[in-house]
Design brief:
The complex is a heterodimer of chains A (114) and B (115).
Chain A lengths: L3 E4 L2 E5 L4 E7 L6 E7 L6 E7 L4 E4 L2 E6 L4 E6 L8 E8 L8 E3 L3 E6 L1
Chain B lengths: L3 E4 L2 E4 L5 E7 L5 E7 L6 E8 L2 E4 L6 E3 L9 E3 L8 E8 L10 E2 L3 E5 L1
Parallel strand pairs in B: 2-11
Antiparallel strand pairs in B: 1-3, 3-8, 4-5, 4-9, 5-6, 7-8, 9-10, 9-11
The chains are: A mainly beta (114), B mainly beta (115).
């Protein structure tokens, strides 16, 4: 069964600290993996996309990694800010963008305290 | 910022009422989607469309219907709302080709409460 599991379910950190969110998947075949950020009461927004051949990709203070062999991805947030408080959702696609089916994780709820 | 808009943002209605959730995008995207999201749960696909006059049911069984008579517009209708329909409904669109193909652009959601 194709699944996407995220951990931890929730996380509280202090402003300025770093944190790492995990995403494990069993989706096969694999096309790409995206991380989305969803602020409370808003729709998700894409942070980064990882394809099979990519190991790491950065977007400002966000760095995503992918290990396609172990089917694991992580999202590392550096020097956290209050605005980083949100749910972070991992989404895996099993084929190309036209026909691909998307598998969603339940998200990690991150809270950054001052 | 994504150019995709949903109305209403919040709606409280009684059981048995008919409701339509509106979704419009100005990006010219061919593919559009409706997702249902409950707290702490993954998004569930309820309908999608590849283009005008194309609509398909998603993974989640739903009593709602959709239409796509214009590229930019993808409304979702519930003929008779029930308390079990209480949820957050997210509309999204994506390019089929191009540099950002497959990336979902979401609206801000419609939170429906059925009493």
């Amino acid at each position: 069964k194709n699944q996407v599991e995220q951990s931890p379910q929730s996380l509280i950190i202090l402003e300025g600290k770093n944190c790492t969110l995990q995403c494990n998947y069993t989706v096969s075949p694999f096309s790409n993996l995206r991380w989305y950020k969803q602020d409370t009461g808003r729709g998700p927004v894409s942070l980064t996309i990882m394809t099979f051949s990519e190991n790491t990709k950065s977007n400002g203070r966000y760095t995503a990694t992918l290990d396609a062999d172990t089917k694991q991805s992580s999202l590392h947030i550096t020097a956290s800010q209050l605005s980083d408080s949100a749910s972070y959702i991992c989404v895996v696609s099993d084929r190309g963008s036209t026909l691909g089916r998307l598998y969603f994780g339940r998200g990690t709820q991150l809270t950054v305290w001052p | 910022e994504a150019d995709i808009y949903q109305t209403p943002r919040y709606l409280v209605i009684g059981t048995g009422k008919k409701i339509t959730l509106e979704c419009s995008q100005t990006m010219g995207h061919d593919k559009m989607y409706w997702y249902q999201q409950d707290p702490g749960m993954e998004l569930h696909l309820i309908h999608y469309s590849y283009g005008v006059n194309s609509t398909e049911k998603g993974d989640l069984s739903s009593e709602s219907t959709v239409s796509r008579i214009r590229t930019e517009h993808f409304p979702l209708t519930l003929e008779s709302a029930r308390p079990s329909h209480t949820s957050q409904y997210l509309c999204a669109s994506s390019e089929i080709e191009g540099a950002r193909a497959g990336e979902l652009f979401f609206g801000e959601g419609s939170r429906l409460t059925v009493l």
